[in-house]
Amino acid sequence: MALSLRRHRKNINGLDVKDFLRYLLKHLRGNIVLLWDGASIHRRELVKEYLEKPPRVQVEEFPGYAPELNPAEYIWNHADRELSNTAAEELAQLEGLLVESASRLSNSQQLLWSCIYASDLPWR
After folding, report:
1. 64-101: per-residue pLDDT in tens?
2. Of 11, 18, 53, 119, whose CA is between 20 and 30 Å from 33?
3. Under a CB-based contact definition with an 8 Å cutoff, are residues 77 and 70 in contact?
């Protein structure tokens, strides 16, 4: 399991999502399961069309508003706990703290799986 995180200083759009998916397909081997929340950028026609092409991508969509099902919510909760007692003076410092937190999480299979298990995802 892997965590891939990109930070943006602007709101992302469907083209950004498509670029991120292209990046994933280029750098990850094997099948990919996308756990998709109900964000409007995930429902853009450009994104839907792109996802029809690669057969190794399986999209699992969450209901409209279901944060309890989304493991990403637990990833952000982890980062929130780590950053809660910090006071970054500049955006670059805050970005550095976020990168450090994400790095600790992505380097721990146990922590990544704990985010999956903490969610209410139905296991098959």
Report:
1. 677 888 888 888 888 888 888 888 888 889 888 888 88
2. 11
3. no
